[in-house]
Write a structure and sequence with these properties.
single chain; 5-stranded antiparallel β-sheet; about 90 residues; alpha+beta
């Protein structure tokens, strides 16, 4: 899909689209609703079925670095071994 993907144990937790300056992260539906409540012009569900499963876009030009770091950590922990995430 011409996007860079980031994986843990062969599972994707994030993709990066440099041309559109946005990333897609994997959240649970609850995590998605929490992050999207911040500002729907910055963090919003991917359209269609993927978005209903928790996949969420983040606009890289607009998001604060601390918010992006938190979102990446949550997404990472959704696919990483639980033992690894306890250290974070």
């Amino acid at each position: 899909f011409e996007k860079t993907s980031f994986r843990v144990n062969k599972k994707i937790f994030a993709t990066l689209d440099l041309t559109k300056k946005k990333t897609a992260l994997k959240f649970t539906e609850i995590e998605q609703s929490v992050f999207c409540a911040f500002d729907k012009s910055i963090i919003y569900p991917v359209p269609g079925a993927w978005g209903k499963k928790g996949y969420t876009y983040v606009e890289l030009k607009k998001v604060r670095k601390d918010m992006l770091k938190d979102a990446l950590t949550v997404s990472y922990c959704n696919v990483a071994p639980k033992k690894t995430c306890r250290k974070i």
